[in-house]
Amino acid sequence: MSNVSRDRLLLAVAIILAGIYLFPLYWMYITTIKSGSEMFATPPTFWPTDPQWQIFGNVWQSRNMGRYIWNSLAIACGAVCVITVLGVGCAYVLARYRNIWVDIGLFLILMLQVLPASLMVTPIFVGFSQIGLLNYPRLAVILAIAAKSMPFFVVLVRATFMSVPQELEEAALVDGNSRVGAFFNIVLPLARNGILVSAILIFMQAFGEFVYSKSMIQAVELQPASVGLNSFMGPNTNEWNNIMAYAAIYVTPILAIFVLLQRRIVSGLTSGALK
Amino acid sequence: MTAQIELTNVNKYYGAYHALKDIELSIRKGSFTALVGPSGCGKSTLLRSLAGLENISSGTLKIAGEVMNAVPPRKRDVAMVFQSYALYPHMTVEENLTYSLRIKGVAKAERKKAANEVAAVTGLTHLLGRYPRELSGGQRQRVAMSRAIIRHPKAFLFDEPLSNLDAALRVHMRKEIRALHDRLGATSVYVTHDQVEAMTMADHVVIMRDGVIEQQGSPLELYDRPANKFVAGFIGSPAMNFLPAIGGQDGRSIILDLGLKQTIALGRTVQPGQALSIGLRPEHIELAAPGEGILSAPVALVESTGATCFLTMATTPELSVVFNGRSVARAGDRAGLNFVPGSMHLFDAETERRLPG
């Protein structure tokens, strides 16, 4: 097989796979603007005959989505702040020191990443309830998410720090800066991209977080959009178009961020790997 | 002359690894000192200890008369030029140059003036607004130098600054660094693994091996009177020939063993029967007509660069000979060899030390 035809074949496979992956997303958007009867029509229509654009406004109003999204934002931003401030320091230390304790630390961090949220939630719940943290349920969720996502952040940012040559730091030390000064003046600006990208990834994760929020936040007015979406769905739900509209409003901003920044995200993720 | 840098009995351990062993070194103010040796000999560790990037395990380290053992780098007032240049990639050339001044809290206008002055000296004026990634290797090298110069430090430390440049530029920068050193009246310590760089640039050469200073002195002292076989073999290019020999029974001659034994009279005494290693620099062996000279041997290889001729003789061990001009002898011919009087270095075959006298 020639190179050209092989490339075309691979391209076709890629397009088909992408189509399969993206089909649910397409179906979500399309179902949103279908009318009630069209939604259940057989055979299904792939483009609505009578798009119902007003549904977005209706759902936003009736489900009080503003409050849910606000809660999601608050939780995501809180988690990103906690993780960034603590994780950057941790990642730096793990990047610069090499001994048996650092290796053990890294191993434990990777272990943490393996544990699923649904397994962690029970001990976390019990612990938080004993120290009274559940009286501040959003803070409790922020801390739980921070614990869950920190390893991911630390591993990514550590790679970024490792790509900053140590000689630059030494040059700054000889130039008259202190260790702390060299970190903030030299290392941090050079690692900025990697840290930003990792923070965005964490934000997207936290924005869609469900398990901790569902378990720890009982008060409806404090719940994030993911829990709101879940409570929208009951056993006898048939208003799929409304649910899809909710989901569309919820995920579109994240999708937009990802599409806008995907180049930077990909290069940020590989910057540590490829020098 | 006062000593700008003084090391007394300095040791450095990395865990169980003994990286610097009893280093005694005194560096004169205004001198250009080269630390040279094969990789892993401790020369970079020594330099980093001077900068404060490594802490010495024992001994005393003085800079300008003050004990600096535990003083952090920023308070030592030394400038360092790194092998990779270590220019801050997110700063322009000007910001790179003035970074140390900024930390000291020098006013912006003064910083700018200082940068302009230094840039004029090193020829960087038109590049001040550029970023390091937009510069060539030679230009980056100059920025790294300028960044050190702008501080008027107590000492300049160079860590193999030329090893990333191509050969032609290296020769050029060699002269430039030495000229800058003279103009600034600075004290410089220069680490290199290239003995030619050390010989051509330095006033004082320190040769290290396995964390030990093997010998130190002026370049020509090291060339003329190497203290042991290692120094003798390290200094000079092509490397010195070492020939096995035994002290003659009369105590005034040696018996060379080049496959066939040959007795050579000496102008000095040796112990009869002592196992020796005779050092002879290739440039101290002269070609004579066949059958003449001290010894005669077949030529194995003739290499000529036009100006210089390199001969390898088919003896065991091989002898190399260097002279200016063209060779009349060809590979396979027999040639006579003469040794330049007084050019023979005698080492004890066992201790590898130079024999006194």
Q: Provide the CATH architecture of the largest domain in chain B.
A: 3-Layer(aba) Sandwich
The ordered H/E elements of chain B are EEEHEEEHHHEHEHEEHHEEEEEEEEEE
* Strand proportion of chain B: 25-35%
Shape of chain B: elongated
What is the CATH third-level topology name of chain A? MetI-like fold
Shape of chain A: globular
Adjacency order of strands in the biggest sheet of chain B:
6-7-8-3-9-10
Largest interface: A-B, 16 and 25 residues
- CATH architecture assignment of chain A: Orthogonal Bundle
The chain-level structural class of chain B is alpha+beta
CATH level 3 topology of the largest domain in chain B: Rossmann fold
Whole-number mean pLDDT of chain A: 87
CA-CA gap between termini of chain B: 30 Å
Structure summarized in a few sentences:
By secondary structure, chain A is an all-alpha fold. Chain A is built from 12 helices and no strands.
Describe the structure.
The complex is a heterodimer of chains A (275) and B (357). With 275 residues, chain A is mainly α. Chain A has twelve helices and no strands. Chain A has helices spanning 3-32, 36-39, 55-62, 65-96, 100-114, 117-130, 137-162, 166-174, 179-207, 211-216, 225-232, 240-270. Chain A is globular and about 75 Å long. The model of chain A has no long low-confidence stretch (mean pLDDT 87). Chain B has 357 residues and is of the alpha+beta class. In chain B, 24% of the residues lie in helices and 35% in strands. Chain B has eight helices and 20 strands. The longest helix of chain B is centred in the middle third of the chain and has 18 residues, at 167-184. Chain B is elongated and about 75 Å long. Chain B starts with a strand and ends in a 9-residue tail after the last strand. At the A-B interface, helix 8 and helix 9 of A face strand 6 and helix 2 of B.
